[in-house]
Amino acid sequence: MKEIFEDFLIKDDIGYYCRYGDFYIDAMYPVAKNIISHAHGDHATNGHKTMYATAATFAFMKNKFPKIAENSLEVVTFEHTFKLGNVNITFFPAGHILGSAQVLMECQGVKYLYTGDYKLQEDATCEPIVLTQADVLITESTFANPAVSHPDVEKEILKLKDRPSNIMLGCYTLGKAQRLTALINDLLPEREVLVHHKMYPVHKLYNELGYKRLCYTLYNRKAMKDGSTNKIYLVPPLTFNSYFKAKNVLRAFASGWERLQRQNDIELYISDHVDWKDILYFIDKVDPRQVWTIHGDGRYLKKHFDGKLIVRDILSA
Fold first, then answer.
1. Could you tell me the residue ranges of all domains in the chain?
2. What is the pLDDT of residues 214-247, one digit of tens each?
3. Is residue 24 within 8 Å of 15, Cβ to Cβ?
4. Distance of CA 173 to CAs 76, 153, 235, 281, Å?
5. How much is the pTM?
6. What is the fold, at CATH topology level, of the domain defined by 10-146+273-313?
7. Is the separation of the CB atoms in 181 and 234 below 8 Å?
8. In the chain, which residue ranges form alpha helices assigned H by DSSP?
9. Class of domain 153-268
10. Residue 40 reports pLDDT greater than 90
């Protein structure tokens, strides 16, 4: 059995560094070589000399960073292997948002799988997750808690049905807003989706690059006030919070976090991350020798697998 390098990927103040390939994953500050798992702002930053990501991830980044240097972008297709230093790297879909990738790294016969953010629930707007075996699973642990169980998404969306009012629905601009639009289009066809101006270009990119046609219109004040009360207005978090006294609308925020449901008119537990059962299922399918946790609290996983599987936080520099 090949030796696992305990320091294969190290967390430092910049991101996650692999000295065996001399690259970072999801670096927060400019570096020479950076692999970007997906386009959310806590993973994707600009200014790196060379960036490796999927075409969709770069499309979203170009929308956010119009002056991004084209000659710094290396587009990676799923399941195509490339090499950095002594490490062979392959992207697999993560199911989190359109273009999101798990990063499989192989070095001296040992496979290390960095998940980025991922989900197992169905989502018609992005690539479904692909399961692959690895010796070391480096997994996000945002909701790695036995108390967390994400409900059925269709049942959650149907909470918005037959409400005699327009609805202001808070959600993240990239990924969540498009998933919600698709769900509303399919399950609540009587509802008209209006989107905030910051979401509008992202919706357009999803229609250009994605897997499901989204039906929506750009928000305008007149549309919300006039006509029938069948509108669902999607707004980003800051806008949602600034309208805390909005009248003549019901308020909801789509998230897996309980704290974001408080003081809203409708609770809407929709998450784009794995819950406890999902992460256990994923670990079983990946069948690793070790699990390293990132982006959350790995204590419950460590306790659950005590004596059966090595589970620890990723090492820090």
1. 10-146+273-313, 153-268
2. 999 999 887 777 778 899 999 999 989 887 667 7
3. yes
4. 24, 18, 8, 29
5. 0.96
6. Metallo-beta-lactamase; Chain A (3.60.15)
7. yes
8. 55-64, 153-157, 176-187, 200-209, 221-225, 237-242, 276-286, 299-304
9. alpha beta
10. yes
